[in-house]
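From the pipeline queue, job 12 of 40. The input is one protein chain; the requested action is below.

Action: predict structure.
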Amino acid sequence: MTTIFRNGFFHTLNPAKPLVESVVVQDGKIVDLGSEDDMLLQWGRNDVKVINLEGKFVTPGLIDSHLHLSGLAMSFLSVDLSQATSKEELLLTVKKKAAQTAEGVWIQGRGWDENRFCDHLLPTIAELD
């Protein structure tokens, strides 16, 4: 099935053709774009569906990967505790980071899962301090 979307303002994100007024879609894919007259002349047939957008703006689809970019950035600044399999291993990892960190600077860690701890013990605030 071929569909011509006409009478619109399509933002293409292509510097050579940043804005066009008509787009041709075939089998769910954009196959041509340009002026309304050109698209109707090249693609207009009896078996083509034509949709008038009445001057509306159209932008490319934005796909949300649901990435929390700031959280990802913070993970690179934090101590990765995801591989710790015991309270002692977790505390040792934090202690190593503390030895490389200036006094008074906070150390942040993330990713630990107490369900992986073979000893089933959780660190106390006093141990972490």
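Job complete. The longest strand covers residues 29-34.
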